[in-house]
């Protein structure tokens, strides 16, 4: 199972839960949209903190060396 399948499953689960609450009259469609948007924002912020936790900056001299690998801050891909 790849990450795209996982996120698709998460989206369907959120839709099912939101549909249940909307059908019961506990939420409106607009409220559901706002809640899911807020959850997405919180998840994005938490993921960014998690990825950066424990990392440290390097000096310009070390970063300029060609034998030191570079890690993309967006994707985490290591390139040499």
Describe this structure in words.
The structure is a single chain. The chain has 80 residues and is mainly alpha-helical. 62% of the residues lie in helices and 5% in strands. The mean pLDDT is 84. The protein is elongated and about 60 Å long. A two-stranded antiparallel sheet has the order 1-2. 0% of the residues are buried. It has one domain. The chain has 3 helices and 2 strands, in the order αααββ.
Helix/strand-derived category reads: mainly alpha
Residue stretches low in confidence (pLDDT < 50, at least 5 long) are none
User: H/E order of the elements?
Assistant: HHHEE
What's the main sheet like? 2 strands, antiparallel
Shape annotation? elongated
How many β strands by DSSP? 2
SS strand fraction: 5-15%
Distance between the termini: 29 Å
What strand order characterises the main sheet? 1-2
Rg calc: 20 Å
User: How many distinct domains?
Assistant: 1
Number of helices: 3
